[in-house]
Specification:
Strand 7, helix 8 and strand 8 form a beta-alpha-beta unit. Helix 2 crosses helix 14. Strands 2-1-3-4-5-6 form a six-stranded parallel β-sheet, with helices on both faces. It has a six-stranded parallel β-sheet with strand order 9-8-7-10-11-12, sandwiched between helices. It has two domains: about 150 residues, Rossmann fold (3-Layer(aba) Sandwich); about 180 residues, Glycogen Phosphorylase B (Rossmann fold), CATH 3.40.50.2000. It contains 14 helices and twelve strands. The chain is an alpha/beta fold. About 45% of the residues lie in helices and about 15% in strands. Keywords: Transferase.
C-alpha cells in the first residue's frame, strides 16, 4: 500500500495548522512503515486529500475513476470558514455545500476531533468517518534554554519582562480582536502574535489592527518556525489562544508539549480532552485577563497536566491510528 498525500495551495497553507498537519502525516506514515509520496504522477493506492480547492476536487474524481481509494481529511468545516477571509461569511453556505459534496464522494474521512466529526455528520454525510488527532512530535518541543534565549534576544525582551504569545493566521475567528483588548488591559505585559497571511485576503478591520491599530505592547512580527517559535512556546510566560472555532488546534498541542501555561476560549472542540485541570478556560476579555494575571502571579500551574494531554496525542500514537485507518480504507 502506498499513500499519496495532497495539499493544494501549499504556499498559502504551509504557515497554517493544515500545512503542519501534512508534515505530521508524513512523520506518522514513516513511523508506521507505510510508503508515501506527494508526486501526483507517481504510483499510489490511496490518496489522502487535505484541502478542498478545485484541484483537490479534480484529483478526487480522477482517483475515483481510476479505482483508487480516496480519504478526505476533515480539517475544514462551514463553521471554521466563517470569520476568516474577506467575504467568508457570505460564502460560508456555498462552501458548506461544496465541502459536503467532497466528503460524500470520498471513501473515508479522517478528521482531527470528535467535535469536527459531529459537524461533518450534521451535514448529512454518511461516508465512514473517524476522529484522529493531528498529533504532536514531542521531541521538537520542550524546555530548551538556547532556543528560549534566541526568542528573547530576537524580540529584545528583558529577563524580567512578562510576555504572552499566540500563534495563528490573522483571522477574526482566531480571536485577534480579543487578543488586543486583553493587551490593552495589561500594559505591563508584552503580547506577541506569531503567524501571518497575505493581508489583502483579510477584512480591513483586521488589517488595520495588524498594521498598527493596537497598543504599543502588542507585536505582529509575522510567521516563525524553528528556534524562535519553539523558544517562544516554552520561554513565554503564557500561551493565549482566544480562538472561537477550531477543528482541533495544533498550536494548542504545541503549547502543551512545550510545558507551557495555556489560556483558551472555552469552545466545543475542546470537550473531552481539554478542561480546567490542564488549561485556563474563559469566555471573554475579563476572564482572559484574570487567567493570565493568575499565571503571572504564580497562583496556578497546570503545565504537567497539559503535557499529559500532548503525550496522549503524540505522533507515535497517531501513527498507529492512521495506519489502521488506511487499512480500513483498503478493505472497503
Amino acid at each position: 500500500m502506498k499513500v499519496l498525500l495532497y495539499l493544494e495551495g501549499k504556499t498559502v497553507l504551509q504557515k497554517s495548522g493544515i500545512g503542519r498537519a501534512l508534515y505530521h502525516q508524513m512523520e506518522a506514515l514513516d513511523l508506521a512503515g507505510i510508503p508515501h509520496t506527494t508526486d501526483l504522477l507517481g504510483d499510489y493506492d490511496v490518496v489522502h486529500i487535505n484541502t478542498y480547492g478545485p484541484r483537490s476536487l479534480r484529483l478526487l474524481h480522477t482517483a475515483k475513476r481510476q479505482g483508487k481509494k480516496v480519504i478526505m481529511h476533515g480539517h475544514s468545516t462551514r463553521e471554521d470558514f466563517k470569520n476568516s477571509f474577506i467575504g467568508s461569511n457570505l460564502l460560508a453556505p456555498l462552501v458548506g455545500k461544496y465541502l459536503t459534496h467532497m466528503y460524500k464522494k470520498a471513501d473515508f474521512i479522517i478528521t482531527p476531533s470528535t467535535y469536527s466529526k459531529k459537524l461533518i455528520e450534521s451535514y448529512g454525510v454518511k461516508t465512514p468517518i473517524i476522529a484522529v488527532s493531528n498529533g504532536i512530535d514531542l521531541n521538537k518541543y520542550g524546555k530548551d534554554e538556547k532556543k528560549e534565549a534566541v526568542f528573547r534576544e530576537y524580540f529584545q525582551l528583558e529577563n524580567d519582562q512578562p510576555v504572552v504569545i499566540c500563534a495563528g493566521l490573522y483571522f477574526r475567528r482566531k480571536g485577534i480582536e480579543d487578543f488586543v483588548k486583553v493587551a490593552e488591559q495589561m500594559p505591563h505585559v508584552r503580547f506577541i502574535w506569531l503567524g501571518s497571511i497575505a493581508k489583502w485576503m483579510i477584512p480591513s478591520s483586521i488589517r488595520k489592527i495588524v498594521n498598527g491599530n493596537h497598543p504599543e505592547n502588542v507585536s505582529f512580527p509575522g510567521f516563525f518556525k524553528g528556534a524562535v517559535f519553539q523558544g517562544a512556546m516554552s520561554g513565554a510566560d503564557a500561551f493565549f489562544f482566544p480562538s472561537y472555532e477550531e477543528t482541533e488546534g495544533i498550536v494548542v498541542l504545541e503549547a502543551f508539549a512545550s510545558h507551557q501555561h495555556v489560556v483558551l476560549r472555552d469552545i466545543p472542540v475542546y470537550e473531552g480532552w481539554v478542561d480546567e485541570t490542564c488549561a485556563e478556560l474563559g469566555q471573554n476579555v475579563d476572564d482572559f485577563v484574570a487567567s493570565i494575571q493568575k499565571i503571572l502571579d504564580k497562583k496556578v500551574d497546570k503545565r504537567e497536566a497539559g503535557y499529559q494531554v500532548a503525550q496522549s496525542r503524540s505522533i507515535d500514537k497517531v501513527s498507529h491510528q492512521l495506519a489502521d485507518a488506511y487499512r480500513q480504507v483498503m478493505e472497503l
